[in-house]
Amino acid sequence: MKTVAKPRRNVKQRTEPVTVVQQESSTDEGGGRDVWRRLGAVAVVLVASFAVVVLWARPAHEPAPPTAQQRSAAPPAVTVLNPTDIAYLQLMISLDTSAAQLFELIIASGDPALTPVAKAAADGHKTELAALRKALTDGGAVEDSSIHAGHDLPGMVVDADMAAIRALPAAQQPAKAAEVLREHLTGTTALCGSEAKNGADPATKATAEQVLEAHSKLLAQM
Questions:
Q1: Rounded CA separation 181/156 (Å)
Q2: What does the DSSP 8-state code read for residue 214?
Q3: Which end of the chain is more exposed for a tag (fewer CB within 10 A), N or C?
């Protein structure tokens, strides 16, 4: 019986595939580690960027700092009128308004003694009325001309006064007009003096003091 020799194993054929597999595995592992390193670096950058945004960004609910104009703007003044202030303003507006017809009559007459006083009084009363109405509005009150309509109060120039002046001869009208004007200025100065002492609102009291000074000068010129 003939013995058949077994073929010798080719070691190289067995080891080469193993070696290739090992190399491919090593390559795959190295590439995987590179990918994870790249992903880790990107994550660090993203986290750092997010932290900067959070630290520097202003929350939506946080108010923006005031501008220079807002910081410099003074708060509106609060005006509080007591009953004396309101009564003074309402009455003083009526008194100054009632005298307009008297000033027009005197100026039209051309009397050399009274005309300059009447012109100065007319201009001054217009300025006063603007200040008086502003003080009344700032205090939250509403002008009501009907309160003193037709009332013959001290300082009020009523229709009866104007009728009495026109009823006189032209030569006597200036004297009567001067009498009515003096009564008007005397009544307004007394009213302003009372407001300056008993009023509460500083702006109204200051206006009363200005009117008192102006009307006193007009009286001194007569």
A1: 10
A2: H
A3: N
- Return the CATH number at 184: 1.20.1260.10
Q: Contact, 215 vs 188, CB < 8 A?
A: yes
Determine contact, residues 155/191, Cβ cutoff 8 Å. Answer: yes
Tens of pLDDT, residue by residue over 189-208, are 999 999 999 999 999 999 99
Do 200 and 126 share a domain, yes or no? yes
C-alpha angle 59-63-66 in degrees, rounded to nearest 5: 140
Identify the CA nearest to 124 among candidates 188, 190, 191, 200. Answer: 188
Q: Are residues 101 and 47 in the same domain?
A: no
Q: How far apart are the first and last CA of the chain?
A: 170
Please provide the DSSP assignment of 106-130 as one string.
Answer: HHHHT-TTTHHHHHHHHHHHHHHHH
Total domains in the chain come to 2
**Per-residue pLDDT tens digits for 137-153:** 999 888 887 676 666 78
**Burial class, 219, CB count within 10 angstroms (exposed 0-12 / middle 13-18 / buried 19+):** middle
- Residues 51 and 110 grouped into a single domain: no
For the beta carbon of residue 125, count every other beta carbon within 10 angstroms: 24
